[in-house]
Design a protein that fits this description.
Number of domains of chain A: 3
Helix content of chain B: 10-25%
Strand order of the largest sheet of chain A: 2-1-6-3-4-5
Largest interface: A-B, 40 and 30 residues
CATH class of the largest domain in chain A: Alpha Beta
Radius of gyration of chain B: 16 Å
Structural class of chain B: alpha+beta
Oligomer: heterodimer
Distance between the termini of chain B: 37 Å
Low-confidence stretches of chain A: none
Mean pLDDT of chain B: 87
């Protein structure tokens, strides 16, 4: 019997790496109906199979590689997939999404998702092709950088259309922010999932296929799809989309510096006077050579660059995103653009998260400035701000865990704990994840986004661009005219709890469908109606025609991920910000003097989310309403429900 | 765009505009197979990420088609609209046409084992509409159209070192 719902490949794969066994199973109806795919289905799987007792780098941990119904189904932008596990960096919920071509290819190879557990006795990689799955020997690939390993896999199967997710030396060495590089220069960067692969002796996941993804009603789906695509042409976003096509995310360097939100000098301030040196025009003039796009994407934010000569010659390769430029640039007071691009690409090749790597380097530089670290600790390396030679060396040393690279490989929180003394004061993270390229002192709702994000301090679970870019029509349509004035104020905490709860719900579906934040976060083109419009004709799941059902699915996914973290000890106390971002007023720049009113926003968020204000735990009736009865029961037995 | 009964048209791809998103493949497979399956697409985007090459290939509707000349069963011929098509009934899947076409314009359909190639969607190509970057256009097969077709490969020529790059 083929799987009841279309839009899915219809099968998933269980991989026991310890035994070297693969088992193909039929996709589960309930996963699709209640959790859609991607992040939602992963939450369900990890909730059932991992918990407080699971050591992230042990064979017990489970890694999920998942797609969603829209993956590879011509929705733009839908070339994405995601990985989820328990994070070795943070010890809590981990998910990381990536564009490119592997997600769709996994479905054309016959699998919606892959669940991996155990540890292989020797290096292996997983090869998926037309409904078959095979663990292949990766002895020759072990130790190779990501582009070499991916090319070798293509050559071994004599199929240049094979798409590959691969770890580099950093993941093999279990650097806690080891990433997974996909299609040569895209990365599932955050939360250390490359280290999880390394701990399992799993070098890569590769897929190639010629199986069809069907639609329940193709004509109706293509029509719905066309309606959604037409929204991209709305003059409201012409400028944003033109900027993304011309500069990719590098355009944000200028835009964000202008509002004083560009992390500079280990997040000391939000304004970098040399931002233009590492900005979009500089990249475009000096190093950009082509535009690229993920599968079926009409936005096409990726760019290809090459630094032809000098100490930082590298490429052609996929160019650094805004976040990498921030991490290795402004955050380290480094305005040497070639070095920034070089380190970004070295991280892709070594398989490390650029944000965590750059942010941890910035943290060490501040410790150097404060005299907490000296050349005795660094093996003679001078860690002065902007020392590009030392920075480039640190990147290599982290991947190999050599010398001070051993400390760097732990990320800021664990490195600070090991150094002790005042070091933790300078570690800029929430729940163990290094803060990404925003600053709540310049943008109130970023503070709430960082604090409540289930994977730690970053923007991708609920960042709101509504008040940043001021789309009045969108704000009024979504939240009503009477709230418009307060919501549009980037420095006001009022109604931000409601806004962030709403956007977290929206992104939960975006991350389960699986589509991109471009088109949803910026510009805010698609909203809940989009899912009602495209999911039923694609899948045949009629319930998804109801706004109530769709909204509930989004809330269900958010609550399940939160419950996962509650079980690991996360409460309101951990849903906070590092001291610098919470209580040191912004010292310079356009947002000078700014501070987030986190408690005000948290109260509103917990109320809207159906949680207890004191603990952040969910109310039982909230979980029951979302058909999460079993989750409520589990939390109740551990004393992790809101007390009524 | 000219659109006569006798099409005599070609698809011209400007690879400087192509971002390698492969939406053309998805649209083509949806139109020809009713499913999303890029391996069954009549237009294919070849990629070499290490060398930064993105090369979309599609049948050029040659005046003297090498594929047709190589076919032992005469399965490839112009139809009533002057579009070069494969006759499914006659094709035996021998792949001679694939070997003969020096442009990569004809491929094998994985589930049927038969040759497939662009049929210009009988005059209204879905790939042209599906390309978000306007990299594919349909042009009349006049000298102007052919020139456009050649113009598209400048970037590729420079990648191969055939054209000298500016600093």
């Amino acid at each position: 019997m083929p799987f009841r719902y279309k839009g899915y490949a219809g099968h998933y794969l269980e991989v026991d790496l310890t035994k070297g066994k693969v088992n193909t199973r039929e996709m589960q109806e309930e996963w699709a109906r209640l959790y859609l795919g991607g992040s939602g289905v992963s939450a369900r799987i990890l909730w059932e199979r991992t918990g407080p007792q699971t050591e992230p780098l042990s064979p017990d941990n489970v890694l999920v590689a998942a797609t969603g119904p829209l993956t590879g189904a011509m929705f733009s932008p839908s070339g994405r997939m995601m990985f989820a596990s328990k994070s070795p960096l943070t010890g809590i919920w981990a998910e990381s999404h990536v564009g490119g071509f592997l997600g769709p290819e996994m479905k054309y190879a016959g699998f919606d998702l892959v669940i991996l557990h155990g540890r292989s006795p020797k290096p292996v990689y997983l090869f998926l092709n037309d409904g078959r799955a095979e663990l292949c020997d990766a002895t020759q690939l072990w130790g190779r950088e990501t582009n070499v390993a991916a090319t070798m896999i293509r050559e071994e199967h004599r199929d240049p259309s094979t798409e590959v997710a691969v770890i580099g030396p950093a993941g093999e060495n279990q650097v806690l922010f080891g990433s997974i590089t996909v299609d040569f220069y895209r990365a599932a960067g955050r939360t250390g999932l490359g280290a999880v692969m390394g701990s399992k002796n799993l070098k890569a996941i590769a897929a190639t296929g010629s199986l069809a993804v069907e639609a329940h009603d193709m004509d109706k789906y293509l029509q719905a799809n066309e309606q959604e695509m037409a929204k991209l042409s709305d003059p409201l976003w012409t400028e944003s989309i033109a900027s993304l096509r011309k500069y990719g995310t590098t355009g944000l360097v200028t835009m964000i510096n202008e509002i004083g939100r560009l992390p500079t000098k280990n997040h000391w301030t939000g304004y970098y006077e040399h931002a233009d040196d590492i900005g979009p025009e500089a990249i475009s003039k000096q190093y950009r050579i082509a535009q690229e796009a993920c599968y079926g994407c009409a936005i096409g934010c990726k760019y290809i660059f090459r630094v032809k000569d000098g100490p930082f010659a590298i490429g052609p390769a996929g160019g650094s995103e805004y976040e990498s430029i921030m991490a290795f640039g402004s955050n380290c007071l480094n305005n040497d653009l070639a070095s920034v691009l070089y380190m970004g690409t070295r991280c892709d090749l070594l398989g490390m998260d650029t944000i965590s790597c750059g942010k941890t380097i910035g943290f060490l530089m501040e410790l150097w400035e404060k005299g907490i670290l000296t050349s005795k600790d660094t093996g003679g390396l001078d860690l002065s701000w902007g020392n590009t030679e030392s920075m480039a060396k640190l990147v290599e040393m982290a991947a190999k865990r050599e010398g001070i690279g051993e400390l760097l490989a732990l990320g800021t929180r664990k490195a600070a704990e090991r150094i002790g003394g005042d070091a933790p004061m300078y570690a800029i993270h929430s729940k163990g994840l290094e803060a990404s390229g925003q600053d709540p002192r310049a943008h109130q709702s970023v503070g709430l986004t960082y604090a409540i994000n289930v994977r730690g301090a970053d923007h991708l679970r609920s960042l709101s661009s509504l008040e940043e870019l001021g789309y009045p029509e969108v704000i009024i349509k979504r939240f009503g005219k009477e709230k418009y004035e307060e919501i549009k104020k980037i420095t006001s905490p009022v109604y931000k709890g409601e806004v962030i709860k709403d956007i977290e719900d929206l992104y939960a579906l975006v991350d389960s469908a699986v589509i991109c934040k471009y088109g949803t976060m910026w510009p805010p083109v698609y909203y809940f109606e989009t899912f009602i419009n495209v999911i039923p004709p694609l899948t045949g799941m009629d319930e998804w025609s109801s706004m109530k059902f769709v909204r509930e699915a989004a809330e269900r996914i958010c609550h399940l991920r939160r419950a996962y973290n509650h079980r690991l000890g996360i409460t309101r106390k951990q849903e906070t910000l590092p001291k610098r971002l919470l209580s040191d007023p912004m010292p310079t720049g356009p947002a000078k003097g700014g501070l987030p009113d986190l408690d005000y926003m948290l109260d509103e968020y917990y109320t809207k989310r159906g949680c207890d204000l004191k603990t952040g735990f969910p109310k039982k009736e909230t979980l029951v309403r979302l058909k999460l009865d079993a989750v409520a029961g589990d939390l109740e037995s551990r004393g992790l429900l809101a007390s009524n | 765009m000219e659109n006569s009964v006798h099409l005599n048209s070609i698809l011209a791809i400007d690879i400087k505009r192509c971002t390698g998103c492969r939406n053309c493949e998805l649209a083509c497979s949806a139109a020809h197979t009713g499913t999303f399956n890029p391996r069954r697409s009549r237009v294919q985007v070849l990629k070499d990420e290490v060398r930064n090459i993105i090369l979309p290939v599609v049948c050029l509707q040659c005046e003297k088609p090498l594929c047709a000349g190589s076919c032992p069963t005469l399965a490839i011929a112009k139809n009533s609209k002057d579009i070069l098509v494969v006759d499914d009934e006659l094709c035996i899947g021998c792949k001679d046409c694939m070997a003969a076409c020096i442009y990569g314009g004809i491929v094998m359909d994985p589930p049927t084992g038969r040759a497939i190639k662009c049929d210009l969607c009988q005059g209204d190509p879905v790939c042209v509409k599906a390309c978000p970057y306007a990299a594919i256009v349909m042009l009349p097969a006049k000298p102007d159209g052919a020139r456009e077709r050649y113009g598209g490969i400048e970037t590729l020529s420079s990648s191969y070192g055939l054209v000298k790059e500016e600093a």
